[in-house]
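From the pipeline queue, job 12 of 40. The input is one protein chain; the requested action is below.

Action: predict structure.
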Amino acid sequence: MANRVEGVTEKLLECAMQEFLANGYNGASMRTIAENAGTTPRSIYTRYEDKEGLFCALVDDAADELRSYFEKHMQDYSARPVEEQKELFHDEDFDREHDSYMQDIIDLMYRRHDEFRLLICCADGTRYADFVEDIADLDEKYTLKYIEDTGNDAITSGRAGKRLIHLLCSSYMYGFFEVIRHGLTKEEAETHISQLQDFFSHGWDKLFNP
């Protein structure tokens, strides 16, 4: 019995993935998912309560993995001695560490490519509709913490305001996840993100260290 139920659940998730990818969350049909899975809408609601519950069952793990990995990287850097943090854009060891971190993020996104397509392209109407903005908010939080912890005068001098910091963090994160939205191959994504990183690193360096 357990094996039969497990098989139905796997088929249901497979069909749900295809329906959400094809039509987005708002356009997806629970009846179509049920028919393609050889079951009934009632069976879906028994397992997942509602349409959003089914969508979240597909993306929760991927979203949590990326968010946790991203925040751990930020926390680890924030825990460094202040004098090390001040060398953010001029530390070759950190550059290599950060390049490895970025590669791990890319590997994660392409290992779970369909889940991230759902998160980036198909999540309107769900609690993940602002997924990219939520990640940008984390980036903004730790950028402001960096400014405070290192005593950087970017804001107090008037070179930047908190609104600009917010816009820069959002711009970077939206640009980062565009590799998924535009269907880039992993190799293309690696090039795009490397170029994006170089562009923003030089900009942040000039803002923090004029």
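Job complete. The radius of gyration is 21 Å.
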